[in-house]
Amino acid sequence: MKLHTLNPQTSFAQSNPMAFSTGIRLLRCYHHQFTFAAAPSGFSGVRKAASELRFLSSVNPPRKQIRPVSARRRVTEEEEVGDEGNGSVIMRDRDSNEGGGGGERIVHAELHKEATEAYMAYAMSVLLGRALPDVRDGLKPVHRRILYAMHELGLSSKKPYKKCARIVGEVLGKFHPHGDNAVYDSLVRMAQDFSLRSPLIRGHGNFGSIDADPPAAMRYTECRLEALTEAMLLADLEQNTVDFVPNFDNSQKEPSLLPARIPNLLLNGASGIAVGMATNIPPHNLGELVDALCAMIHNPEATLQELLEYMPGPDFPTGGIIMGNIGILEAYRTGRGRIVIRGKTDIELLDSKTKRAAIIIQEIPYQTNKASLVEKIADLVEKKTLEGVSDIRDESDRSGMRVVIELKRGSDPAIVLNNLYRLTSLQSSFSCNMVGILNGQPKLMGLKELLQAFLDFRCSVVERRAKFKLSQAQERNHIVEGIIIGLDNLDEVINTIRKASSHALATASLRKEFELTEKQAEAILDISLRRLTALERNKFVDEGKSLRVQISKLEELLSSKKQILQLIEEEALEIKSKFFTPRRSQLEDTDSGELEDIDVIPNEEMLLAISEKGYVKRMRPDTFNLQNRGTIGKSVGKLRVNDAMSDFLVCRAHDKVLYFSDKGTVYSAPAYKIPECSRTAAGTPLVQILSLSDGERITSIIPVSEFAGDQYLVMLTVNGYIKKVSLNYFASIRSTGIIAIQLVTGDELKWVKCCSNNDFVAMASQNGMVILTPCANIRSLGRNTRGSVAMRLKEGDKVASMDIIPDALQKEPDMTLEVHQRKSRSMNGPWLLFVSESGYGKRVPVSRFRTSPLNRVGLIGYKFSSEDRLAAVFVVGFSFGEDGESDEQVVLVSQSGTVNRIKVRDISIQSRYARGVILMRLEHAGKIQSASLISAADADPEVEDAAAVEA
């Protein structure tokens, strides 16, 4: 087997590529049997750089011709160097100075090692120099060089636009010796508001469109820097905040980084494909990002759950709806995750008679081509893959996106929309792969690692800037001190200068006479005569005082890590206040991107029953028929051992049910997702529906049909702490839950009710004490707060129940609760319905109680015996039948699971001190565990006799 002789002018790979590739394949096949040797090329006995050992890859011939030698099956011991020669190339180095051909030296070069080293060198060059952004400023080298070149040209946000060709030429000539198309494409992308969440360049002209239209040529377009770019990336660049490195020809310096003030990598995201590695980071909202950064500053040990309170997910520039947060959590935790994005649509009714409708596409997923989307929909309609569509029009203009999809008569918009999500890019996924350059190495990082890496970098920038300012201030203060000394001794200074025969002698005389440094002496000599006045001296004195204060502050800053972090927070908040924009992408809490079944499920009334051990079931409202007061009731179904009923309520199928746990966490799930079952079934464990932690119990559930802005949730704990939170805070709840109230040790969240500021809160203790207070008196707080004391409890007493007196209690227009209480002392409604644990109850008119502020003992509402306690209290008397009597009904649930449903009108009206009447007999059923109010059924329910129904 032979090697071809090399042409002195060209390499073997260039002259005969087919033979070269064949030789490589043969080399792989027979590397265990053959060792190839070649003539030397001037080696000096030690191995030189890898570029000198490339196997047949150099275009220019070496100084000494490489002579091919025959292949041998084994290498002698004298020739062996290092490992055995499997797949190696033997290079013979003949030194011409050693007597005509003697002194040959053998250097082994393993082919696979050479290929590995060459490949890794190329891969790292692509990774660091082109494809991947730096974690610290979030920029790739080409983007950094474009922004720096524009900064050097003075193209600030307040200066006129300049041709993009001028900027591209500047970047190519000074910093980035690559193709002009690559530089211009990068510049264009930084100016597109549909590519970056916060564009870094302000473009003027045609910079492309969301339909993938190409931008105009660089000779036609103009640009300048955005104000955000100057404030976020280029501020303090001249104050020695970052290192400057030589450019490609060592003729100029360029910054290795830009001193970013907020994490630009998370703000605008990044995408790039390198060698064996890629990155894909989603963009985020500026305000949310700054809030998360501040939270990280205040609590470096903050958990991912706490950071998600401030930055719940990405915010794409094209808007859309992010489906679920499982992919977000995975991406933030590990650096990799899949986020499903769905376009934002609306349904418009075209003809009310024929009920023809149209689907309006208002927003599309990130990085989706709108023109291709419309073309794909038309193609599906033409192939009859997508049915029910009659016409498609793109009515988008400068005001926004609007793609109209008209439907045929009788077509269900929900089904068509579901098919659009399934068959087109109207629903797509964004695969997060958060890889960035950190300390010169590519690294996959989660959210906390990215924020921490930026904070470390920002601390270094602030520290270097402070040292730079301190050095300047100290130098200036040193000169000012010398000038003041000269002005204080003005006559002697003038005489000294006049006596000197030269500048050097004058400098030396001043230094000797007044003990000045050379810089101080030079400053005195350079001062003009008009600055020798007393007024100018005062200016120097004031400047010296200001410099000393500045030096003191800078030294204090450099000595305190806490102050450095505080300054970082202040600068980030300043950027947020100037450049914050509302969130564009909507977050929707769902586990999948498929269309929900809520549109095809009737919004019917349903009953929900929850046990203390966390079993829930959904039943039809007619499951429990009306019974007479004082009967035993009907069993709610089978219960587990040592289990008891916890709550029983009425809601509708489309309601979103909020589940509040004893640990102060709130979860959410649609009501229709709870499996419907019969009365005798045991129910479904809540852990199959909610992500509950170990030992966590659901203590209160609130069905919400609409998250109105004027609605609040009033929360009351077992230890008597109360607070009011806006209902909007719970519109979007993660599957892992969010914090609803901050609890102290030993306290539990027990009661949650929905109210408005015009409503009143009625609270009662187990001993029967009652407090009525306006909801407006309870201060609205955030979710992560504890609240204030609700009522002053006596020893051994606890809070028993809470209910809301709605604003609808006014019998007459403009009659408030206080006026109604003063005018009405009769037994008319509304009433407070009391239910005791032993099954007794009564109605007491609300007019018998006066309103009072919080943290009071309250008034007696029920006089109990020593063995009895209050189980629940309700406000009744707002729903009346045709006969003028209350048509409300109360459902009582005992600890053993027996349910009794009775009319409120059957419960007698008594005074505050009365014991009440029997509502439910509890000989073998324990105590009353829970009670709830429901509305009357449309049809007259069949009243079952207690003797005919077994518990």
**Share in helix:** 25-40%
Strand content: 15-25%
What is the mean predicted local confidence, pLDDT? 81
* Termini separation: 98 Å
As a whole number of angstroms, the C-alpha radius of gyration is 40 Å
Keywords: ATP-binding, DNA-binding, Isomerase, Nucleotide-binding, Topoisomerase
Catalytic activity: ATP-dependent breakage, passage and rejoining of double-stranded DNA
Protein name: DNA topoisomerase (ATP-hydrolyzing)
EC number: 5.6.2.2
Give the helix/strand layout.
Blueprint: H1 12-15, H2 17-29, E1 36-38, E2 88-93, E3 105-110, H3 111-131, H4 141-152, E4 162-163, H5 164-174, H6 180-189, E5 201-204, E6 222-225, H7 227-234, E7 244-246, E8 253-255, H8 264-268, E9 270-273, E10 278-281, H9 286-298, H10 304-310, E11 321-323, H11 326-334, E12 336-342, E13 344-351, E14 356-363, H12 370-382, E15 389-394, E16 403-407, H13 413-423, E17 427-433, E18 435-438, E19 441-444, H14 447-488, H15 490-499, H16 503-514, H17 518-526, H18 534-558, H19 561-579, E20 586-588, E21 605-611, E22 615-619, E23 634-635, E24 645-652, E25 656-661, E26 665-670, E27 684-685, E28 698-704, E29 712-717, E30 721-726, E31 738-739, E32 749-755, E33 760-765, E34 769-774, E35 780-781, E36 788-789, E37 799-805, H20 817-823, E38 831-836, E39 840-845, E40 859-860, E41 870-876, E42 889-894, E43 898-903, E44 917-918, E45 928-934
Parallel strand pairs: 1-2, 11-20, 30-35
Antiparallel strand pairs: 2-3, 4-6, 5-6, 7-8, 9-10, 11-12, 12-17, 13-14, 14-16, 15-16, 18-19, 21-22, 21-24, 22-27, 23-43, 25-26, 25-28, 26-31, 29-30, 29-32, 30-36, 33-34, 33-37, 34-40, 38-39, 38-41, 39-44, 42-43, 42-45
Helix pairs in contact: 4-5, 5-6, 9-10, 9-19, 14-17, 14-18, 14-19, 15-16, 16-17
